Amino acid sequence: MTVQQIRLFGDPVLRTPAAEVTDFDQELRNLVRDLWDTMETQGGAGLAAPQLGVGLRVFTYHCDGAAGHLINPVWTALDEEIQDGQEGCLSIPGMYWDCRRHRNVVARGWNMHGEPVEIQGSDLLARCIQHETDHLDGVLFLDRLDDETRKQAMREIRRAPWFTGAAPTIKQSPHPLFGAR
Q: Matching SUPFAM superfamilies, A to Z (predicted)?
């Protein structure tokens, strides 16, 4: 088991879009294993490679009875249904806020062997797919919060014992934000 240190809010790697995976080699399989071991040890529903400081489009997930990994993911909403619900992040430990997401999504990508994969998810799994794909785009779920909730979140983060005081950045998401900035 190879548990890695998770990068925390304020680390620039979390705001940097990840590169597409082009080599489906042993190094990639090791990364997937490290992501999985770290996610499971920390009790997360998902974990993206940038959270371990690796700028590649890879994430693992384990929620709602589904578990696996996805490489170079692209997701689409299956309908217009939206869900509001608590969301947290291993890079913002111990903090949760309500966030709007699509309720039903499908994601397509590849597994660590270069074989095509499709994941269809609702509720928590849909939230996880969107959250982890956002990480690969350099977007944090804080960017999806409404203005008042985001201000409250930033106040709480600044008081958190793990926060280093690094200047946070708010990034514009390339995906629909449901009216939020």
A: Peptide deformylase
